[in-house]
Amino acid sequence: MFFSVVITTYNRADILRLTLDAFLHQSVDPVDYELIVVDDGSKDNTGKVVKTFQRKYKNIKYLKQKNQGQGVARNNGIKIARGEVLVLGQDDIVPTHDFLYEHQKFHYLYPEENAAVLGFTAWHPELKVNRYMDWMVNGSSILGMFGGHQFAYEKLHGKKLANFNFFYTSNISLKTSLLKKFPFDASFSSYGWEDIELGYRLEKEAKLKLYYNSWAVAYHHHYMDERSLPGRMEEIGKNIWIFDKKYPELKKVPGPLKKTILKFISFAPFIWFLAAIKKLSKGSICNLYYYLLSKRYFLKGMDEGKKLLKTG
What is the torsion angle, in degrees rounded to the nearest 10, for the CA atoms of residue 170, residue 171, residue 172 and residue 176? Predict the structure, then answer.
């Protein structure tokens, strides 16, 4: 068997149905891959949805665990994977028809254990993409250097290899043997840093080579707006301390000067001013508004995370 596809899910039965259907209608032969759905303690009808597919398709495994986070869920799926190559997926990442073929093609070209493949993820065509979602997938919207925190594929244009900062677990495949040796760090139980941590660890300890194939396309079927920003950025801020403790050499925690600058530029009155005029403005003001707002909540999460370290 060539592929094991590990799909983690939590309370998204409707979208999971769409994702499973897309994975079960790939251009590669169904005997060449298995789907492993790891349910992270869902309370909806996720189990019933998966069992409906299992009645018709024999290459689906279903594993349910208590809610422990995506890292633990992925590790549990990796443990039972039988394919030579493991594809990391999510319940809301819908693959295109040739998705597995494009990943397979690159693994034939680069059969080494430390060779991995990064595909391209875009918003699902069914979604009405708003300005916030545009900003989320543009890491160069501010001065060509800074931007949203979801993806930054524009920085990979014309490049063959990507570094650990592009270890996007929504669309990536690695040799299964490598992931069994280097599992996800379960201490990252909430959103933020668990993927970058694994990417850096693999790059550092296994000399990971992450090849970029923009033809391995998947669609993110998850509508977002500004309301999702505070929670996400606070979690990223909290978890940065775990990352920094493991890899202080990367200096991901802002130093005193940088932190002061971030506090200054994300000062509330300035953000309120941008909020008041962004409806009348073009993209540049919106991008600046989202960026500064994200830093405000990032710093808030950092402060909360530091307090937890002291008390914990």
Answer: 70
